[in-house]
TrEMBL record, chain A:
PANTHER family: D-ALLOSE-BINDING PERIPLASMIC PROTEIN-RELATED. GO terms for molecular function: carbohydrate binding. It is found in: Cell envelope. This is Ribose transport system substrate-binding protein. Keywords: Signal. Residues 1-27 form the signal peptide. It comes from Bauldia litoralis. It comes from the Bacteria. Residues 33-284 form the Periplasmic binding protein domain. Belongs to the bacterial solute-binding protein 2 family.
From TrEMBL, chain B:
The complex is composed of two ATP-binding proteins (LsrA), two transmembrane proteins (LsrC and LsrD) and a solute-binding protein (LsrB). The keyword Phosphoprotein does not apply. It is a multi-pass membrane protein. This is Autoinducer 2 import system permease protein LsrD. It is found in: Cell membrane. Part of the ABC transporter complex LsrABCD involved in autoinducer 2 (AI-2) import. Probably responsible for the translocation of the substrate across the membrane. The chain crosses the membrane at residues 37-68, 89-114, 120-138, 169-188, 219-242, 248-265, 272-292, 298-319. It holds the Pfam family BPD_transp_2. The lineage of its organism: Bacteria, Pseudomonadati, Pseudomonadota, Alphaproteobacteria, Hyphomicrobiales. GO terms for cellular component: plasma membrane. Keywords: Cell inner membrane, Cell membrane, Membrane, Transmembrane, Transmembrane helix, Transport. GO terms for molecular function: transmembrane transporter activity.
Length: 346, 324
């Protein structure tokens, strides 16, 4: 699947890296890469991990992966990163639980000459590189489209992610930015789904049962179960905004009378993180410390949008997986490789 | 000496297990050294305080499911108070947060005593109450921590006259842990209160008839748990430099450490050293799983299985020694 993607580039820090930590291991191009992730059992994160494994395998430069992938908090991620340092990895690709909370361990890693790349969300530690989806823009695009779609006025259900997660906070900033532009939009209900499918479905069923009217639903990626709930309750379908998860994209194509939009949030950013780490290990240092991948919006209200959605749909993927399984210039694996989800040596 | 070992057999066994595990770790990761041991101690800290918080409550015959939420609430309170404040102000923040912990624990205990609703129900409800309160204090991770507090966890503890080869293996974090626990626990255990906590845990009716105030002791046990939970919350803020309102995985870990540490879930038996060593073992198992690159989805199964086997083996040994 090839689609144009604008790479918004931003320079965060110009702090010169200590030259020693950038000298590549010239003799060997078989690296060990450590991975740290703190949400397990979520479709998006599983795709991210599979993209990391597939990219490590496809690159041919990775001897083995050392994956710390579990449900934990920032303190637990400090522990995982320090374990990876002790395990002697060459680079660490991390999806940070918090932008500041894991800085001490990142600093220890870069001081030890380990390349650290944060994916999906940013960290404030200047010695780390960041390649991330632009979360603020993600929420702004979808919310603006939704408010426009309901005619600039009405009651919106605002279904957020996990309270306290930094991606959720960034998305809230984007959502509020759009909200400020449409003063006649009213938030009928604001809930945290915790990015859990079952919880989100229960919340929308409870709200439908309350009988309070609503004109549109914005979700932070817990989307296909919301459409399921609307269909099962036999209420009038309202515009729904979600992410580019395979299940939701399929619904936008197939569900009669459903108007909605999917905002891209590729889990394949994990593969891009591995590529960035390998480039740095190979001596190819990027000029910017932070690379932001901007989202796109695919809607089914116009013919052009419908064509985009039809092209993106991929029923062969798990319904919770984002359909954007690759990022041009950053990932080289095949679709079969990411679905197989095998890393080097597996 | 043999009597001491027999009486503390379980804890002694845990130390041996930890030693064997260190040897094993060294075998699979030859570079494993003092730097990695410092990392281990840092990882142990919040779990150790969570286990310490659970210990007096379980010994008193109860259980506190709100420990992780109390840690989150005290952590965000500390991080909010210290955000942008002077370094000196943090000296005031520490006792305030510890007092808050005592208060939270006392509220848990008082509710159980007054309402007569089972511990597990009350503290389950309070898990949500304290988590909600933490989100009210800080709705997203943030805040700050004083530099001198963060520095308390860094590096090794230099003892004049002792060669660095030895002090390299004494992380400051370990000294902090031992001092904090000892300052609170030793006076309690040696006092009437400590005896009362064990008494109501083994048989509350007998304790009552012996003149122990069961209600007051129960509240005190929960308050003591709250104090340790507040220390855990402070340690979270000190290690991450922020406060996070979503509770971490400390509740189940605290119960696991208490059980593995030889504290009977029914109450009345066990001590504080066992659960702390158990935390070291559980964290080192986690490190080993990372070193071995065990499939992360299988890692949690391995952790759980190891725990069940150890507890079962321990029960078997205890049974055999009783029958002979």
């Amino acid at each position: 699947m090839q689609k144009a993607r604008h790479l918004g580039l931003a320079t965060l820090a110009t702090a010169a890296m200590a030259a020693s930590s950038l000298v590549p291991a010239l003799a060997a191009d078989s690296y060990t890469i450590g991975i740290s992730n703190t949400v397990q059992g979520n479709g998006w994160r599983e795709e991210m991990i599979c993209a990391m494994k597939a990219q490590a395998l496809a690159s041919g430069n990775v001897e083995s992966l050392n994956i710390a992938h579990r449900n934990t908090d920032a303190a637990g991620q400090l522990e995982d990163i320090r374990n990876l340092i002790a395990a002697g990895v060459d680079a660490i690709v991390v999806n940070p639980a918090n932008p500041e909370g894991i800085n001490p361990a990142i600093k220890e890693a870069t001081d030890a000459g380990i390349v650290v790349v944060a994916v999906d969300q940013a960290v404030t530690e200047p010695s780390a590189y960041v390649i991330s989806n632009n979360q603020e823009q993600y929420a702004y695009l979808g919310a603006k489209w939704l408010f426009e779609q309901v005619g600039g006025e009405g009651d919106i259900i605002y279904m957020r992610g996990a309270a306290g997660a930094s991606a959720d906070t960034d998305r809230d900033t984007g959502f509020k930015k759009a909200l400020a532009e449409y003063p006649d939009i009213n938030i009928a209900q604001e809930v945290f789904t915790g990015w859990q499918q079952d919880q989100g479905k229960q919340q929308i069923l409870d709200f439908i049962a309350s009988g309070i009217p609503f004109d549109g639903i914005w979700t932070s990626g817990i989307d296909n179960v919301i459409v399921d709930a609307l269909v099962e309750s036999e209420v009038d379908l309202v515009p729904v905004v979600g992410a580019d998860n395979a299940g939701f994209v399929g619904q936008l194509n197939d569900v009669e009378g459903l108007v909605g939009a999917a905002v891209t949030n590729p889990g394949s950013i994990g593969g891009a993180g591995v590529t960035l780490a390998l480039r740095i290990l190979g001596g190819e240092t990027p000029s910017e410390q932070t690379v932001l991948v901007d989202p796109e919006l695919w809607e089914n209200a116009t013919d052009a949008g419908k064509a985009q959605l039809a092209a993106a749909a991929d029923p062969s993927l798990d319904p919770e997986w984002p359909v954007s399984i690759s990022i041009p210039d950053w990932t080289t694996y095949t679709k079969e490789q990411i679905i197989a989800c095998d890393g080097p040596g597996e | 000496m043999s009597r001491f070992i027999r009486r503390n057999g379980w804890v002694f066994g845990l130390f041996v297990l930890f030693g064997l595990l260190l040897v094993f770790t060294r075998a699979i990761q030859p570079d494993y050294g003092s730097a990695a041991f410092i990392s281990l101690t840092l990882a142990v800290l919040p779990f150790a305080f969570a286990a310490a918080a659970q210990t007096p409550v379980v010994i008193a015959g109860g259980i506190d499911l709100s420990i992780a939420s109390m840690m989150a609430l005290t952590s965000v309170t500390a991080a909010t108070l210290m955000d942008g404040a002077s370094e000196e102000f943090a000296i005031l923040v520490v006792p305030m947060v510890l007092l808050l912990g005592v208060l939270l624990g006392a509220i848990n205990g008082a509710l159980i005593v007054i309402t007569r609703v089972p511990d597990i129900v009350v503290t389950l409800a309070m898990l949500f109450v304290w988590e909600g309160a933490a989100l009210l204090v800080l709705n997203a991770p943030g805040g700050g921590a004083a530099d001198w507090l963060k520095a308390l966890l860094v590096g090794t503890f230099a003892v004049p006259g002792v060669p660095t080869a030895i002090t390299d293996w004494i992380p400051t974090a370990l000294v902090l842990l031992v001092v904090c626990l000892a300052v609170v626990w030793i006076p309690v255990v040696r006092s009437r209160l400590g005896l009362s906590i064990y008494a109501i845990g083994s048989d509350s009716l007998a304790a009552f008839r012996s003149g122990v105030s069961v209600s007051r002791t129960r509240i005190a046990a929960y308050a003591l748990g709250g104090l340790f939970a507040a220390m855990g919350g402070l340690v979270l803020t000190m290690s991450t430099g922020i406060g996070a309102p979503i509770p971490g995985p400390y509740l189940l870990a605290s119960v696991a450490a208490v059980v593995l540490g030889g504290v009977t879930l029914g109450g009345g038996q066990g001590g504080l050293v066992g659960p702390i060593v158990a935390v070291f073992i559980l964290r080192l198992v986690r490190s080993d799983l990372t070193f071995l690159s065990v499939d992360p989805n299988a890692a949690t199964i391995v952790e759980g299985t190891i725990m069940v086997i150890v507890v079962m083996l321990g029960a078997l040994v205890a049974l055999r020694s009783r029958s002979t």
